[in-house]
Amino acid sequence: MAAPQPIQYIKLNSFQRNLMAAVSSIIALKNPYRDDMVAVSGETTAGNSLKMMHGKMLKDETGRRILTDQPRITSEIINMDKLQQLPENTFGRKYADMMNKYKITPDSRKVVRFVENPEHAYVLQRYRETHDFCHLLLDQPTNLRGEVAVKYYEAIQTNLPMCWLAAIGGTIKLEQNRRVSLIRKDLGQIVRLANDSTFFLNIYFEERFEQDLDDLRREMKLL
Amino acid sequence: MMLARSLRLLGKQQKTWTILSKPAYSDDKSAYTDFGFQTVKKEEKAGKVNEVFSSVAPNYDLMNDLMSAGIHRLWKDKLLKTLNPNSRTVLLDSAGGTGDIATRFIQYVGEESSPQVTVCDLNPNMLAEGRKRAEKQNLNMNWELCSADDLPFEDESFNAYTISFGIRNCTDKDKVLKEAFRILQPGGRFLCLEFSHIKHPMLKSIYKQYNFNVLPVMGECVAQDWNSYQYLAESIEKFPTQEQFADMIREAGFSAVTYENLSFGVCAIHSGFKL
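Predict the joint structure of the above. Result:
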């Protein structure tokens, strides 16, 4: 049980931001398990894409509600046990099953520290915390191939430089046959879905746990 | 173009730093001290410094090597050369953390003469790290968990006292100096190796930019710790000048107080004798 860590707003000057962006991105690409470097890389390279994401949320009614409520996702707030007891085909139950299967918790996400604008900082934090939902909605596993697939989806929807970096960097890192399989089988559909479906940050996921998963997918135009 | 803009912004940064140093208290000023650019209650500083060093402990030496391009080793070697100990030296290495100086001391005098050294530090993590290393090398040192401003040693129980990159972090530097004076025997020597100030204006400016812009970034990427290295940069900035510090040492009772700049003033070794 972990309470959500408060978002910080450490000010960086241009020099620090650029240096951090360069160093953290290189480390993150070389060693994707350094989740702290992935996080810092995302924060220091985000720039204008956060403005765009924030704008998309402001234009949508649910997006506006999320920005007002600023919900966080941690194991303290999301009751995983309750989700486990929901009917089998529900979004919440499938989410709990997926988290159990891959042995992950929502607490492993780092908190945003280097985005100055508080609204933008929240948007980035929300993006980070809903990443696991994307895995579920796209039915992609958490291995490298699955992560890259989700990153393409997120890159198109959010335009975050870090997502593009991770998607392309990850594609290069994949084994030859997996890379080919990803590009031939999944990529076309992922790109189409990313372009046509609802902006995933405009879904108030916490209100949809009891909804049928396929129903939610249809609603988001993912199916 | 980006480079030009970055360089201009570096210049602007000077203003923000001084704004940060304005104290936010209204009552008794003597109850407060510096923690980097923050002004904190004296009781709080030790705790905050402890936090910094608990998080820094495991990556401490790696960070030191990266930040100073390995030159910190030369600085410490110079400190030992200045001390020039022999088998009769009984050394207290204060704020000695991981035992850098104590190790060099033993190697300088030679293990066969069983040199006597005690390392004391406020932070248990640093001491633990130091103990581990000493055991690995089979070196015999005494370890004491205590604060440099309140030493649990008898008067005049040592004839040499060193404090290397430690006094900057102490809550009450005057108290630390007085304690050093107390536990030294007449004829005993006080030596302090600490970050100091560069006189040359251009070098000074480059050094300041390096401290504030590069160190915290390195700290974050290598040690996952932005804040501790931000603190480092601020505490270096706030430390007294070579002359001011020499005066403080004289105030504590020491005689023949001198200092020597290392690396253009990036650090200085201050020396004093109890006569």
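The interface with chain B takes residues 10-11, 13-16, 18-20, 23-24, 27, 36-37, 40, 113 of chain A (CB under 8 Å).
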